[in-house]
Amino acid sequence: MKGPESGMVTTMGKGAAMRERGIRYGGGPTLPRKAINTGFSQTDLAIEVYPLRLQLILMSRGERTFIRISKKGTVGQLHKMACKVFDLAPDEVCIWDYYGRTKHSLMDSLDKTLDDANIQMDQNILVEVTTDASGSLDGLVKRNNFFESDAPKSGLPDENFAANNYASRSYSSSLTPSIYLRSPNGDLDNVHGSSGMITRGSPLGLTGLLNLGNTCYMNSAIQCLVHTPQFTKYFCEDYHREINRQNPLGNVGELALAFGELLRKLWAPGGRAPVSPRPFKMKLSRFASQFSGYNQHDSQELLAFLLDGLHEDLNRVKHRPYINSGDADGRSDEEVADEYWANHIARNNSIIVDVCQGQYKSTLVCPVCGKVSVTFDPFMYLSLPLQFASTRSVTAVVFSCDGSVPPTPFTVNVPKQGRCRDLLQALGAACSLKNGEKLLIAEIRNHKIYRFIDDPVLQLSTISDDDHLAVYKLPKLEKRVNYIQFVHRHEDLDHGNNNSLTSWKPYGVPLLAQISRNEIVTGFDIHELVHKMLVPVLRNPDSLHLAVQSSVSTRTHSYHTDSSKCQLLLVDDSNTVIEKSNDAIRIPQSSLATVFFINWPKADLKKIDTHHLEYLPEVFMYAPPAKRTRGEALSLYACLDAFLREEPLVPEDMWYCPRCKEQRQASKKLDLWRLPEVLVIHLKRFSFSRSTKQKLETFVNFPIHDLDLTNYIANKKTSERQIYELYAVSNHYGNMASGHYTAHIKLVDENRWYNFDDSHVASIDEDEVKTAAAYVLFYRRVREQDIARGTSNGSQLYAKRSHGYSHR
Question: Which of 1, 120, 243, 275 could disulfide-pair with 253, CB 3.0 to 4.6 Å?
Fold first, then answer.
């Protein structure tokens, strides 16, 4: 395999086998690396490429140093390393988990692994000498007792957190002095006295989460899940009985246990301080290495993993049967859908399925034989495109090389991941391209053609928003052609020179003509080409008189010209001036186009409409505009329509037609068949390609009340109305590189909205919930009988149970 960064090819094996392999096949030097157990069986081995990097802090001397140690190393090994590094006697040293400059626990279980002790990459370990009063706290007592902590200057990790390698990109607020409370399990928690914080006596469920360093994405997602009424009820009851520790697809139940414990802390009574999600993040990192460390991640990606992981840990099915769902064979959609759902439940049955999973109807149609395939698949959430997110607008000016119409700008919509042929097709339709005509796209830089964009399969992502495109409408020729571009120049008097010589400065957009290769061209032929192309921009076409000269030099010369005429100078690479004549002019072959200059004296510029020659807009921007006002808002229903619209499969995802026995680019249509109790909607604000990444700031107008999806259900035998109410939003502010996640949460029983910004929780008005930062929406089903009774689930139930609850 390849190392993650070095690109080195490595092979895993044991001593004798590796020696035999080296003798037989050769290879480079042996580089032994430690293999550690990453799972719960003896076969879950992996090379530990990056051991833990920890900072040891000896407070009494003010010394700091970094060490490397395996995550499977023990607390005893760490203790020995600390003694060796600082040259201390082992019986005089104790070490502390000093995560975030807070003493979380005394590390005295010498046989416990650092992984089990929740020690993370790049965190601090405090080394104390028990005989040195200046380096320890007053009243040091025996091991296993807990100590009051050094109060940090703020509730954020210290400046050496994550070894400065993971600088937080989250927006932060100044924090007031902190109070510390001891939790039932011995952890010391930080209570911020910020005016924006919820105080004691407030409703339950208003507890924030500490930011561990770029973990706002995780905090936002967790708050949305723990405030889902069904999950609040489930995890505050005896959910342990449903943990499936034997599921090979699960996490031995540990992810569910960590999530349940965190939820209980967040809903605990008594006005608790912000909770540290550190134990949960350790479990998350263990089972999903992509979320390890302190880089910023996507809250929706975390939600997707977490919902799937919780489902596997809580799957009530211990032994999954093998089931092969058959074709419809003429049966009704209702019968087939029920069969698919029953088969799904036979293998997947958990609280996550009960609450969050719905069912699609997917229809594929073969474009050749018309074969129709219908399947019914489960879904956990809907990922909706922003209506025009898959397209971009491109503006270009079309020049008719026959001089029939003035240069005309066109703006067209093309697939954002499309190709040059898509742009040519859209422009051809816009400018009414005729049979026998073709379009040639050119990028213009410094008033000259920089490149032709003529490869039909060229990705449109190579065209930037600030590029300038000229599109030339030319007749189709069967023979191979050479191109000639005519670059406009105007007089530029050099007043700093005593001779006041005239020089010529390029400006405007070049014109383009084509001639068949090996065709004999004279100066008068060039004259006719230019005259024809300039007619649309001349105020009086009869006033045009061109004196044709040619020059291969771009050096400044003093030309004795008739100022009443335009001077057309031919430039090639021979550096000679060719006198005007009827002699044949050699047009050299070029990868672009041979250049001619049209010199415009100041007097002649008055004879033309310079706007047509000078105006060439930028390609412009993606559609829709990056920011929309609420009056221009995109409806959530429009996003849903775009998601459910029939479209052909992409070439990379062809469908095997069982009738044709071949891969076909079938058309695909999705329909909603069965909706869940909690509907999670992901707005696809982020898009990626090989060369670009982008976030759309489009304002989406989503209903807070009465999201009615009744008409979107393909199962017409469902009589109940499908009405949903918003209760949580995961927000993303900022751009792709430096953003911040928050959550807007509604306490259903309080009927009030709150903003959860890491450790800060503050009430907000309902009209503040809708913003252009909305990223993931959480809706709960509202049944008509529930509305009539005025009942709901969630926080009230927990309030009744939690007074007798203690943390385990």
Answer: 243
Cα angle value 511/516/519 (rounded, 5°): 110
Kindly report the CA angle at 594 between 590 and 600, in degrees rounded to 5?
165
Residue 285 DSSP label: H
Burial status of residue 661 (CB atoms within 10 A of its CB: 0-12, 13-18, 19 or more): exposed
List the chain residues with pLDDT less than 70. 1-19, 21-23, 25-33, 37-46, 131-202, 271-272, 387-390, 493-502, 539-581, 588, 590-591, 607, 609-610, 612, 615, 620-633, 688-692, 785-808
Angle at 150 between CA 149 and CA 153, to 5 degrees: 130
Left, alpha or beta for 38 (phi > 0: left; psi -120 to 50: alpha)?
Answer: alpha
- Please check whether residue 760 is in contact with residue 195, taking contact to mean a CB–CB distance below 8 angstroms: no
Query: Any idea where the domains of the chain sit in the sequence?
Result: 52-150, 199-315+327-371+641-808, 391-614
Fold of 391-614: Ubiquitin-like (UB roll) (3.10.20)
> Is it true that 199-315+327-371+641-808 and 391-614 share their CATH fold?
no
Q: Which residue has the tokens 């400044």?
A: 556
pTM over 0.70: no
What the block records as the tokens of 184 is 């039932």
The C-alpha atoms of residue 666 and residue 660 are separated, in whole angstroms, by 12
Q: d(Cα 456, Cα 463) in Å, to the nearest integer?
A: 14
Distances (CA, A) of 213 to 210, 219, 398, 766: 9, 11, 52, 30
Cβ-Cβ contacts under 8 Å for 375 (sequence gap 6 or more): 325, 340, 361, 362
Residues in contact with 70: Cβ distance below 8 Å, sequence separation at least 6, in sequence order: 34, 36, 48, 51, 52, 114
Quote the CA–CA distance of 126 and 122 in Å, as a whole number. 13
Domain 52-150 grouped into CATH 3.65.10.10 = no
CB atoms within 10 A of CB 25: 8
* Sign of CA pseudo-dihedral 310, 314, 318, 324: negative
Residue 763 near residue 752, CB atoms below 8 Å: yes
Give the catalytic positions in this structure: 216, 740
Q: CA-CA distance, 206 to 226, in Å (whole number)?
A: 11
Given a contact cutoff of 8 angstroms between Cβ atoms, the answer to whether 278 and 213 are in contact is no
**DSSP per-residue string spanning 38-62:** -SSSTT-EEE-SS-EEEEEEETTTT
